[in-house]
Design goal:
Structural class: mainly alpha
Strand content: under 5%
Radius of gyration: 14 Å
Shape: globular
Distance between the termini: 31 Å
Helix content: over 70%
Amino acid sequence: MDAITNGPPPLGPGAPADARLIAYFDAMARLVIDNSELMVAYRTEPPHPRTAEFHAFWDNHITTLLRDARPDLDAEVVGRLLLGALSAELVPAMVRAGETDRLLAAVRELVESVLRTP
């Protein structure tokens, strides 16, 4: 959260919304990949006391950037769908299979496809 609010661009302030969104999803995908087994366990335990705070922060960040980059989209729903892709069962399966580079590339392609103006 600190890297998003105070870190250097493109993850932090100072870069265009589309570059920040790509940087965010790259960083979040790497976080999920690096902690994939912890993330699987996390889903089976009672929620962390700050879970709602974390999700609200990420949701607001993604929605704000999407609204700026693509005002024609329903940024709230599209943002949640993008973030939901990182919690899919496919993620730990690909990590276990050693396909992290492929996963990172696919996440980037997904975000870039949303950012393309029709």
